[in-house]
Structures are given as C-alpha cells and as structure tokens.
Amino acid sequence: MTAAAAPARFTGRTALLTAAASGIGAATARRLAADGASVLVTDLDAEGVRRGAEEIRAAGGRVRDQRLDVTSPGQWAEAAAEPEPEPEPEPEPESWAGQRRPC
C-alpha cells in the first residue's frame, strides 16, 4: 500500500474478519490488506465497518464491508455468497526508447 510496505505475503487470499468495526478487528483488517489480502470486514456496527473499509480503500487495499450478526446463520450465508472485491488491474509496462514506463 506504500512503497515501504511489507511484501504482499497474502496476495491471492481472502480474509473474513468479524468484530472489525474497531479495535483489534479493524487493526487486523488493515494489516492483512496491507499484506495483500482481500478483506471482508464485518460487524454489527455497519457504519464502523464502512468507515474502516474506506480507510483500507484509500490506502490501496481490496475490501468489502458488511453488517453481520454472527449469531444469524442467514447472515453468514449472505456473507459467504457475496463475491470478493474485484482485483485492480496491474498496469502493463511500455517501452519507450529502451526505457520502461508504466501506462
């Protein structure tokens, strides 16, 4: 997410986090996203996970937020049925007189 970020060791993986509107859940979501994971942040606090998801997106992470009551089997089914966030396309390098430049 930044030039000095850790290697993307979770690229290609998806993490579903509960209780992710604040505290340890939110911090874990930010860290996993920074390490390349797509994250689904959930909590009873829909506004809290929305704010957290906006922060992750602003930092370049792939995230989806959803209100989730972990005691509801129906809501678990909804969370599992939703597609994961779409990957952002990688820019294709171009060659200009022997120099590689991003598109």
Written account of the structure:
There is one protein chain. The chain has 103 residues and is α/β, with parallel strands linked by helices. The protein has a single domain, classed as NAD(P)-binding Rossmann-like Domain (Rossmann fold, 3-Layer(aba) Sandwich). The protein contains three helices and five strands. Strands 1-2-3 form a three-stranded parallel sheet, with helices on one face. Helix 1 packs parallel to helix 2. The mean pLDDT is 82.
Q: Which secondary structure elements does this structure contain, and how are they paired or packed?
A:
Layout: E1 14-17, H1 23-34, E2 38-43, H2 46-58, E3 62-67, H3 73-81, E4 93-96, E5 99-102
Parallel strand pairs: 1-2, 2-3
Antiparallel strand pairs: 4-5
Helix pairs in contact: 1-2
Pfam family, one: adh_short
Region (Disordered): 60-103
Family: Belongs to the short-chain dehydrogenases/reductases (SDR) family.
Structural class: alpha/beta
Query: Total helix count?
Result: 3
Shape: globular
CATH topology: Rossmann fold
What letter string, H or E per element, gives the SSE order?
Answer: EHEHEHEE
Q: How many strand units?
A: 5
Percent strand: 15-25%
Largest sheet strand order? 1-2-3
Q: Which residues sit in consecutive blocks of at least 5 with pLDDT less than 50?
A: none
* Fourth CATH level, the homologous superfamily: NAD(P)-binding Rossmann-like Domain
